[in-house]
Amino acid sequence: MLNQYQRRADLVPNLVNVVKGYAGHEKDVLTQVTEARSKVGAIQATPELINDPQAFAKFQAAQAGLSSALSRLLVVAENYPQLKADGVFRDLQAQLEGTENRIAVARNRYIKAVQAYNVTVRSIPSNLTAMLFGYKVKPTFEVENEKEVSKAPKVDFGAPAKK
Description:
Blueprint: H1 2-22, H2 27-42, H3 53-77, H4 81-85, H5 87-122, H6 126-133, H7 146-150
Helix pairs in contact: 1-2, 1-3, 1-5, 2-3
């Protein structure tokens, strides 16, 4: 799963650069994507990450921030027909969508594996062996604000305010 998150992080600068060429005045969105990607890059994603609940929570928050920023970037791209027609943008968007699908599959597999592991660690008699060898419950991926995630983002492209 970590390799898919890394792949997504690697695609982001290319996507931002292509969008920047067409939608340079959308600076806030481009800055948010770049900052979110930077936060993701600052966290060393290693298999040991799941053994540290606080580090794992930071990792999840950084990934959620990047997902949110990318969603806003793709909404912005919808308003630029030339950008949507650009072959490089379409290729990057397709790669990003494929990566997001791979992340979803890998996350689902991780969640199922952690659930099975956690049941084993907590169940009698295997919990006695787990305690003896220091096996502890592992964190799973969670959606912090499920209602917010299900809402479509609201975007205002500078419509003049009514007086």
